[in-house]
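Z., the sequence and structure:
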Amino acid sequence: MFVSASTNDPNVQRPPAVANGQASTQPSSTTNKLQEIQKSPDREPTFKDYVRVFSYASKWDIVVYIVVVFTSIGAGTALPLMNVIFGQLVGQFVGYFQEPPTVSRSDFERLLGRQSLYILGLFLGRFCLSYVNKFSFRMMGVRLSSAIRLHYLQCLFRQSIHVIDSMPPGAAANTVTTTANTLQIGLSEKLGVFFEYNGTVWTAIIIAFTWSWDLTLVTFSLVVFLLVVTGVLFPFAIKGLVGAIKAEAEANAVASEAFSGIRMLAACGAENRIVARYTYWVKEARRQNQTMAPFLALQLGFLFVGLYGTFGLAFWYGTKRIISGAIQDPGVIVVVLTSVMMVVISLERISTPLIAVAKATVAACEFLTVIDAPQPATGTIKGPDTIATGDIVLNDVVFAYPSRPHVKVLDGLNLRIEAGMKTAIVGPSGSGKSTIVGLILGWYSLREQYAIPKTVKKDMMKAGPKKGEEKSGAVDRSVDGDAGVIAKEAEPPVQLSGSISASCVALDDIELKWWRSQISLVQQDPFLFNDTIFHNVAHGLIGSPWENDPEERKRELVREACQESFADEFIDRLPKGYDTEVGDGGIKLSGGQRQRIAIARSIIRRPKILILDEATSAIDVKGEKIVQAALDRVAQNRTTITIAHRLSTIKNADRIIVLKEGRVAETGTHQSLLENESGVYYGLVYSQQMSLGTPAQASTEESEEDLDAVPTRKTNTAQFETDVSRQEPRVGNRNLFNSFGRLLKEQRAEWPFYAATFLAAMGAAAGTPLQAWLFGKVLGVFSLQGDELRHESEFWSMMWLVLAIGVGMSYFCQAYISIYVSCRIGAIYKEQYFRAILFQKTCFFDQEENSQGALSSRISSDPKLLEELVGLNGPSS
């Protein structure tokens, strides 16, 4: 009977009596939370985030860390001790070769033998300590990185779907790969280098002050200068670094999203538009990296000016002290000078680990934003305290999505889904059908909503859109271009209210994991893992009583489920049967075949509730028939909820609920609802008949397809895809020299920059032999006396200054040009690399090595390796 007109039907919705004050209200705390969602909460990385990563270390990890910290310091201590030995040797050499000699031949040979043994002992000790700390730090870095990645994924999977939806596409994959690698580098060898050179610095300072405190103070003036220069330039470099990391993350998100929907992208012909979006963020990353170039180059140039200039200053002042008689042994000057030089060099070496730690701090913040995000409240009631075979009731539900808190999706919805019956929910697009599924599954909650903060720097928050950004289609991030949505954002957020219960128990009080184990879902576009058919179906046993059964028993259950879903008809025709690989996302199978495997996976656990969310809408009309037959079979003897656009699939439903604007407009059976020609359901049926043809025509078209014919056609498709997968990719004959030569040839426009870099590198490299030559001249000066000693010391001190300026300018030019060019070339090849992948044939993406994850990783890491090849490689890089 037609019941939609009855005033006693509790499912027929009426507008809430707002005027009478009967509308449900929400606590102010929830309102505030909803208002905060659109503010895009931000989180600034701090050093506390980096330190917190060590909380993931076990007791033995902490013990190992403590041990290797001391071994690192010990390895660093060995180098300054060499200065003492070298200074003593210099003093003995000067005394032995001057006229008249002050050291006898026997004393000289005895001292030389003893000092050689000391050098050998220091070498062996440093070698052993360095090996231990390098190996241990790397091992600990891997362990900590693995631990925080695991915890990150655990916390991410505990979040509500709306929280995951708030993250950029590909953000999670980028975090557990690229970001995790950055964090691991900052926790392993680089950290060991930091402690090692700290040991070198402090030991060298102690030795220098012990041998001559006044000469050490004079020499240390340049160290203070370098610290000031680094303190001024380093923040600017870090600012560019953070900006580059964020831009690269956006580019990786675009790439990951494109690879996940590559076939749809090709079908729409949107490759060039996606390339434009990707190129925008690549260019932004290049711009941010290039802003670091002058600051890093200045830092490197000043470093070597100070390094070589300190030699001249120490030599000039030390000679004055020798003339005045305050210093008797020239070896003192050598010990102090080499110790202070070691401090300068070690401070420069420490800058590289500091940069790695700064990157690791940003990476740790990326992990902790998800880990620290509030976990959704979950109940504790589960079987046998409750059952999943009772009615599901939605009472006066008002809901809006967190991403659009101003747009009301459900408006005071009252709905009852009766146990053991086939209930179909239909309605126009946007009426709230799939939203009901999300609420029943616990993807969304009627409690407070929140979003994961973004990791930013304060300075970045002040930056507005770049010039031309408003005109670029590549940066269009609007979810809705509709002016009505923009107008709604000026209104207060929708206040969530209402309740959802199952078997007379509030859904919020039921343990979410147990509740979901009672439900199976078949969606419009089923997802299959890049695994065999058997394992894809067997994944449905997770959380069921048969989860830990032997594989033989699981194979029996898989076969039964596939038979029930009609999937066995095409699986048995495959060469490898149930052990056939389905490809990335199941791409090696047709849509109907993927859908039947998804149905088998959903029913293998024998769920109490089966939800079919437009399970046949993505399949052609002919293929829909066999899938619908499978759905009708598996829907027996369980509560079934069907969301459908194709109304022909729900004719046999026990009850049909029609939604309109977030409320129930009608309820009844297919026949009873068709009796009301002014009803919403009748209008939907009429609209579909007009678009598909008359009912008679539709019936004729459907009758032409026999159930037995469908598997035969699908078998041909599967066989074709199997043949394609067997094709071997053709790889050209490439080697290092050919590839590098081609790179140089393609970048002919950059040859002038490479020539300038080459000349600058030659000038920088000449500094080391010139330094050795000058040092030999200095040792000869110590044998002079009086005015001749003073004159020669002033001359060679000026030569040290000239060498310092020349080498400093060479390093500045080399660093600036190489960083600038490497960023430029890296951006060019990133864009070309992405474009080349995007325009590959479809069979390219069917290969296992070209899965979405593999391509996302390669597009992120390969250009980085290229930048390292053509860019600055050295202590400062």
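The CA atoms of residues 30 and 448 lie 5 Å apart. The mean pLDDT is 77.

Let me know what you think.
H.
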